[in-house]
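TICKET #2291
ISSUE: user wants both folds in one file
ATTACHMENT 1:
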Amino acid sequence: MEPLREIDPTHIGAHALLTRLGAGGMGQVYLGRSPGGRLVAVKVIRDEITGHPEALARFRREAATVRAVRSAYTANLIDASLESAPYWLATEYVAGPTLGHAVGRRGALPAETCRRLFAALAEGLASVHAYGVTHRDLKPQNVILGAQGPQLIDFGIARGVGATELTQDGQAPGTPGYTAPEVLVGDGAGAAADVFALGATLAYAATGRPPFGTGVAATVSYRAVHEPVDVAGVEPGLAALIEACVAKDPAARPDPAEVIRRCGVRDALVDDPVYVGLEALGEAVPLHEMRTQGPGYVYVPTQPPQRAGRRRGAWTGAAGVAVVAALSLAAWKLIPLDGRAGAAGDAAGKGGVTGAPPAAEGGQTPGAGASTGGAGGGGPAGVAKPPAEYIEDNQVSRYLWTASSNPVQAAHGVGQCNQPAEKKPPGADFQSVVSTTGPDGAPAKSATIKMRIKYAEMSQSKPDAYYVSVAVKSPHDLDPDTGTPFPMDNRSVGYTSKPVDIYTHWRSGGDVTLTYPDDFTLHAAGRTWPAAPLANDPGDWTVVFYHVEDDPTKYASIACSGFQVG
């Protein structure tokens, strides 16, 4: 839980908001208090995506799903406002840790506890399926270990019988490692896909390890389609049931009733001493402080940013870009590529120029930490101390740079990114240039990336430090150990450089120069890999510039570019 911020409302509808519970791609979730004093979880859709028809349709469908499903294993809908902004829904608040948090803190659960939890969750799925609804994103983070038993949460991408498919073309719902093979290859998500996710979730509970290993999203999903689940060390009977649930063929999986029968439960889950002990891992609700807190700040919805013209020239500029919120953190592209991803348009330019995303005024994420130094940035002060030596590949990156369809322009590095950055860079003008080098007539062996803040040298005093890490993404997802590409679109952050203060050469007006692959590595799941050679994956490579805070998992994009490898 986190305290409310100045930008947060104090009331939504009739509910007083008390604290932040968390956030997702669709919106912010708050702990609230109903007029009668009941604790509720209030989910508010983000202001910046309220104008997107698909986002609203998805949110309304979530509300309709929660309203329709009345189960002991789901939090009931209390109230909702779906006709005008701010759009929100309020459900019962269930205290307790998520299964992901509990296993992360305590490790794998005993086989008997897993069987009881298996049966309870299977009963919950059976109840949901009886209403004609498939969850489509069951995973350890979406299971709350409540005092009365587990609760299924987050129906943001659930689907009812006859519901219109809202997932965008070429994208699959769910989370890597818990999404069924038939969903990943585009054959749809039925009740059997929920059983696959159930088996994968229990594999995690029984081993304390991700069911299909770690790594970038496409790599994990490739294993889910082609390789067996990790049940090493699990009691044989329980392992066999998990393996049955994650069978590659959906027709071979047991239904929830068969799962319950095979668990052979004779005792209540809430009487299991291990399960009871996990309840203490949930965050305590500071009710006294919440009752006595005074009035807060007035809620003012943010206004959508206005588009501005794009800069062109020898340097690619990104003076200001709009905040873009994903419709759902659980949607990511995994279809094998038949060609390049569609670009938003081709840029014009000369020699080694890479197209920047369309710029927009405003869009600064509150409290995001853009430098206000002498370069004219418009936000809080930048990072005062160096961040970690790297950034963690813990995000799904949807950035794709596509070379111009004009062969002459493509040969000179002209292209376009498919979406704008997440926040404004500091200063009057952030600029970057990307070029490749290699033998004449042969594929490029290296790429040079330069960046600077234009006119930073005109500041009378050195601007506040502002750390940037550059990420280089191959066209397809690469096996981290071998550098071999999979036939899947790359959704990883990619190989990244050590964060560097972009004002390093502020007095001379010089630029920061990096070379791929020498200055780049991949950091994920506690491991580090060297950058793969460019020749491993010919095609359009993407370059994303990230502002980094003092935590390797906290960073946001400020610009996008790319280059082509023949």
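ATTACHMENT 2:
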Amino acid sequence: MMVNKRIFLLVAAICLSIGWSAARPPAEGMWLPLLLKQLNEAEMQQQGFKLTAEDIYSINRSSLKDAVVSFGGFCTGEIVSAEGLLLTNHHCGYGQVQSHSSVENDYLTDGFWAMNRQQELPNPGLTATFIVRMEDVTSQILTGIPAAATEAVREATILGNMARVRQEATAGTHYDAVIKPFFYGNEFYMYITETFRDVRLVGAPPSAIGKFGGDTDNWMWPRHTGDFALFRVYAGADNKPADYSPDNKPYQPKHHLPISLKGVQQGDFTLVFGFPGRTNEYLTSHAIQEIYEVSNPAKISIRETKLRLLDEDMKASDAVRIQYAAKYASIANAWKKWIGENRGLHKANTIEKKKELEREFAQWVNADASRKQQYGNLLAEFGQNYQQLDGITIARDYVNEAAMGVELIRHAVDYIRLVELVETKGAASEINTLADRLEKSAPGFYKNYNAPTDKKVFAALLDQYYQNIDPKFHPEAFSSTARQKYQGNFSKYADDVYSKSVFVSEDRLKAAMADLRAGKTQAFKSDPGFLLASSILSHYRSEILPVYNQVNDNLNLLYRTYMTALREMQQDRKFYPDANSTLRVAYGKVADYEPMDGVKYKHYTTLEGVMEKAAMGGVEDYVIPARLRELYEQKDFGPYGVDGQMPVCFIASNHTTGGNSGSPVINGNGQLIGINFDRNWEGTMSDIAYNPDQVRNISVDVRYLLFIIDKFAGAGHLVQEMTLVTDDTSGLPHADNRKEAPKKKTRKQKKKEAAVK
């Protein structure tokens, strides 16, 4: 797909502002399960939640949390059967599907379905982590900090306390413990976890379904994507975590989510339970202005260039397409998100709203002498620190996006430490350990690496780096080599690097590593790719990172103080902590929205929309498998369709972010109704500021995935594992009134009923 530059014009095309209120709208927030009883239960029940906070999170009995996992540490998944069957997004399992694919067995294109347990595919390194319990450990973590401690002393004390508390909490168990700061280090919570290490691929639809719409529809609504995949968690004979073994058994969970066939209606309560990655809801106007005006535009431009080059080569070769499919999707995902984020920030007039809050804050501070003494300089100090980042942030962005966007450079950086150890005659054990790790990872790198493609990326991205960054922030190699030797011609620079570097092929690197193990470093020290990577890293470490880290240390202290002050100023407001990859609850309602004047989107899509998009023609992201078209034309939707239509996706007002991909969307009865997989483009700014009129999370309707599994793939045995319900009975394991959906009627029964009618 060619990247459309006109998309940038949309950032400035819409100007709709909303009011800023100290009271957050009901749908906003990523809430700690431990605190739902005191903060959220009453409001959730008013909105249609039929259960209790104890039903969501409990350490005394099974609860919804026991069916939710951190999938691989980067997504969320949910258990949907008593035999460890796990649902997540297709894009979350994309890397695993890719790893099992080849030109001969192209599971990315054709899909994959295990028709029995023996066909389920292991995935080394993939994990599923359950939360056993969480605990407020603020007092234990902040104990022993001297009153006048510097930030360094405070941090060292906290790290020591964390290690002690973790050790005490997990001693004698197979559990792990994670402790993370909240509200910039004002509070600390500990999560006790249980991680399963044998997670096998069970099923994935073809990309034409699981990725329908591709980059064209990414971050967009209306959406028609069957973004789901199935895995299975395996355990040892004792039902505890175990390394992969053919003797392992399917995990028997404390709870699995029943699946509702009732569907969704406008205004229905929705709960998203998962592991959101990172948000920054309490940033000042200074930070948002830097993101909006400086950082996002630069990163968008760099990634647009890289996407264009990858797209050209992927279209020209199936082998390259398979090699770069997951990487392309990852690059495009953030690229388009940043565009939408800027659009949303502009649309909500966010910078000005933040400034208004800061003016209110200043008035509140100045109204009291003690507050003025404590907080009087806070906003000015924010401004001074962000000013120190002028030029630093953009230089850092170009290192991370342009320099490290070149695979050869990023790969070469991994070897710098090893070469240093050999040259300085470091400890043999450390050298061998690092060398072993690098040699073990090399085959995986080269399996998905194409040097000619990377060479094009090298020439284009480094030219952008060279042209767009103040020369005072250039690495030494830019002046000594790029400018003097190649007169700023990065195509010639690329010719030299990719004709000589050991990093362009696995065989060359193996030979260089053999010399290195023998104490010879010349192959690396004379390598033009290694020299460039070393120059970039050295400059980054000496000129950019120290300033960046120092300012951010200062800012972290300022934000910690700012959060204390805001909570003191707005005592009637319920504050939720920024996302940090810990288990959270977000709740809202199924809701339509108006993205711009004269346009209104309804809350759901159907299979008819898939056909309509395909009929547009000329868009490769809108390919339809023949079997899916056949089922549509015959209206053969089984028990999953409604009034001759097949629901596909729906939207709601839940506050989500990256990491929530794959999260279960649960109705008021604790039943699964969908799988969260995206946000609307206008709503991507919710990582920074929530706009209730625009923010919508996008989910695949659970009825569509059942239809695909059963009718499209013929894998009905997987549906048989699940608990399907058609009524409003409780979805909790301790409820004894749960009913299964009626079994399919035979043709004879249907004829008999028709005759009676």
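RESOLUTION: both attachments delivered.
EXTRA DETAIL ON ATTACHMENT 2: Confidence is low (pLDDT under 50) at residues 1-25, 736-757.
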